[in-house]
Write the structure tokens for this entry.
Amino acid sequence: MQLASERKEYLQELTKTIRRHIVKMTHHAGSGHPGGSLSATELLTDLFFEHMNVNPNEPDWEERDIFFLSKGHCTPVYYSVLAEKGFFPVEELMTFRDVDGRLHGHPCGEHIPGVDASSGSLGQGLSLANGVAMAAKLDGKPRRAYVMIGDGESQEGQVWEAAMTTAHFNLDNVCAIIDWNKIQLDDYVENIKGMKDFKAKWEAFGWHVIEIDGHNLEEVHSAFEQAKTVKGKPTAILAHTVKGKGISFMENTHKWHGLAPNDEELELALKELV
Amino acid sequence: MAVQKAPREGFSEALIRLGHQHEDLVVLDADCAKSNMTNFFKDQFPNRFFNVGISECDLVGTAAGLAIGGKIPFANAYANFLTGRAYDQMRISVCYSNNNVKIVGHNAGTSAAQEGATHLPLEDISLMRSLPRMTVIVPADSLEMEKAVEAAYYHEGPVYLRVGKLPVPIVTKKEDRFQIGKAIKYRDGNDVTLISTGIMLDETFKAAEALANKGIQADVLHIHTIKPIDVEAIATSAAKTKRVVTIEEHSIIGGLGSAVAEVLSEHCPVPLKRIGTQDRFGVSGKMHELLDFFELRAANITATAEKLVDSALIK
Ligand SMILES: Cc1ncc(C[n+]2csc(CCOP(=O)(O)OP(=O)(O)O)c2C)c(N)n1
């Protein structure tokens, strides 16, 4: 199913709202991770608003699809999407990282509606998705498991242990989204420990791979649609993205991986997001 | 007011100084070089620096290999991911093989601050202490950190060094003698023993002063080496004061409190209270908020020590 033009306009506006949340939340906390949140904005917005079978009024609904943010540091975008979707009040976003709040720096599976597992120690999400997918198959349920992984995160061995598991058990109800923004904490991924042929790696591990522009809502949308129709193997969406996307001075630099905007920078950022 | 400095700064400076003196010193990091300040070593010695990316298990194994190859590696990562994830590599490739690897756990304790529970290392000392052959060092401030880095380099065998990220007051003195395995006695008193480790020395000093104002004289012992622990210093002080309080920025399970309990029960059984984080995960918060949240302040130490002294008097 293609993305209808009025939905596209709606989502486009929504991604702007979410980007505003991202910079405001990190500004409020004085810390946090805008770069990898801004690169994942279109991906997570389209996923939660157009594909995930969830019910914000009943977060633990047994038939729901499940999402894991394996790159757990990108809570600014994750919490924003959950709040806009209705899992908790949008106003609560401005308690991000407060000592007396529940919106911790990294997601806590116990306390936040819509969050099923704690993450922040990179590399663990795909294994969780595999487990959920196995349980769904055992129960004969159509539930799907989604997981978002960073490209830097893919240096963790567990990602590849899990990738073998997904393919070996033919978990076609697993969809991995790789936010391929080419940058990790210290530098470009290529300068730290390069991925060589990243796409060929996923294919060699037995996955169906869809390569897209992760900021193009139409491409994002049809990738998720296609993933639902692939049978017999899991799907990896390799999404080319730009770290810091949408705010000129944050784009394509590791500087804004884990840095919060100050007052002035917030104002500049918000000006670019009207 | 004492000068404030981040322990990681002292760590980074000492590492570079040693790097100039010793060709065999090499440094590894796992994509946190900026945060761990190992990037300054990299700037000076690009050939002797390896950033292996977000791969903590690989980091520790590679460090063990470098040690086998004749180098003295310092392997750096955030304390929680390093000790949690690469525990087995430390157990087998480092400790059981007795390789001369220095494991450096960063972002220690409450200095992980707003990152929250996933990043707050409150169990690392416990894990490292359980490994045969591992020496565990938890310095009080940036100045002592510099001495600890040097001592770790010259020590033969595996060492775990705990390094905080955020500025804390420098409370130790240049002339204080740092020797692995030896406690430092900072104050003499007969009424209660305060034993602290790491950055809690600052709050412990304040507590000792507050207690003195109330007529309670505390013996203050600083344990920078949790393993091997200074049995003699602890037992001698406990025999004198008859009551002990331990203070650490770590879980009371498995850390300093546990280590001291083991010493006391075997050598000098006296009442002990352990101040530290309880059996729970952390939360997000500024470092000063977390110290309040976990009740790791001088006021908490003072109250605990007072109660211990009072209860002994009633008996
Ligand atoms: C196991 C583990 N090691 C190290 C870190 C510290 N860390 C947080 S984010 C990050 C870089 C992540 O890069 P990437 O996966 O590319 O994320 P993105 O660029 O999308 O933000 C690192 C090293 C961590 N959270 N977990």
Q: What stands out?
A: Chain B is about 45% helix and 20% strand. Chain B has two domains: 4-169, 184-314. Residues 4-169 of chain B form a domain with the Rossmann fold fold (CATH 3.40.50.970).
